[in-house]
Amino acid sequence: MSHRVGALLGRYPALRLGLLIAAPLTWLVAVYVVALAALLVTALWQVDSFTGDLERTVSLENLKTVLTGELYRTVTLRTVGVAALVTVIDVLIALPIAFYMAKVATPRRRRILLIAVLTPLWASYLVKAFAWRATLSDGGLLEWLGTPIGLQSPGYGLSAVVMTQAYIWLPYVILPIFAGLERVPDSLLEASGDLGGGPVHTLRWVVLPLLVPAVIAGSIFSFSLTLGDYITVNIVGGTSQMLGNLVFVNAGAANNLPLAATIALIPIVVMLGYLAAVRRTGALDNL
Amino acid sequence: MTLSRTARRVLAGLTGLILTGIYLPLMVVVINSFNTDQAMTWPPSGLTLEWWRRAASNTGARDAVLTSVQVAALATLIALILGTLLSLALQRFAFFGQNAVNLLVILPIALPGIVTGIALNNAFKGILGLQLGLLTVVVAHATFCIVTVFNNVQARLRRLGGSLEEASADLGAGPWTTFRLVTFPQLRSALLAGGLLAFALSFDEIIVTTFTAGSGVQTLPIWILNNLFRPSQAPIVNVVAVVLILISVIPIWIAQRLDGER
What we know:
The structure holds two protein chains of two kinds. By secondary structure, chain A is mainly alpha-helical. Chain A has helices at residues 2-11, 13-42, 61-68, 70-104, 107-122, 125-136, 141-146, 158-183, 186-194, 199-227, 231-236, 243-251, 257-278; strands spanning 46-47, 54-55.
């Protein structure tokens, strides 16, 4: 019996493919695609402001609210700005350390550094956010360190959100950039040097172009993870709000799931636009 | 390209500085777990083992750890199976819609957690009328964990190429025998690496969890969030955090051993 199945599978590759792909594809479509589609439909529904019941009639009311509301525009710009800033900071910090790890450090030291970068990845996200809350607080470490040299702790607010998020997502950016640099062959750097290229020239014209997909892969993490965050904002953001907060409040306390769904479309559109823009670079294979 | 001594020193210095920045807040957590002052002002006014003693007898934290381990183990198991199947399909076959499938695997992690969270919450509760519980969390976590296994296995398959599998088929082995005796042994360390990452991702996830867990389900991140702002409990959260950091060395050590083997 099993022989016959084997022979059948051997003869028909399409059958093999079908068997391999059926379960995962069904899962992803049934769980994820359907859920996203349902979210889209929910965005068109309403909540009766009097009874709080869901009205399943199609209307563009929520879309209009979100597209024209001052609040949503401000918060969207703020959120995208914070996510972009976090990403830029993380890439700028990740480049030198990843370069040192991949191209300068001895293999033994590289290993130790890799562990050092990976360990905080396993420390709880919440604890890291909370550590920053303690560090930034009145009488916290930052104030203690800063006062003697005349610097102040920024306190809780947007800049605290940027610092904390950049801190939390940094390992996610370092790792793909490090992996990307490891794939740049040393011989290429030597060849550039032999041909008279100085370090700066080599970095700019040899390393950087090869590194673009890895940098983008890292940026997808930091950008997306910041884009939807609302918990760090609650912990160190003071009174500032990001898109995630609006979704969370509307889905929960405000009991307006359709509006929450509509707001959630903003990060979806932003992220899909970002993914579409970077698809050609091959970055998605580097995730 | 040869870097000058100065350039190497500057890079080493920057690396040291960045690592200090990475570890300083974690050190704050470690020291605060011994801080006598509940408000955690700096520098600590005194040191105590009180919080460690209290944490040891805290059943809430212990139950939450168990729940998280359960969720992460189940989600990882599902992700391992689905991720391996999918990477075999995409790496060993060429078919129409391949890129779309590729994007579909990445999407649950590329879209912000709040989107995944509210979409699944809406689907489970609003559309399917399910009661949120442990199982809904597992399904949600498995969905975004597939990609870590998929990436690791996919990268390994790409490097291995298909020649050994073809040889096995030429010698008369069926697809299942080939997988069991040829492909799987070569995938083992990639599966472990992907599985570890999936486990970690699930263990630490809070946003999707908040939206898909029923009120009765308390994973460790949810327990931490609930206790973070309670002055009497916050120091215990510090202790739990330190323990987690210490335990996390084990999987990293395993992953490094695997890397060395490769």
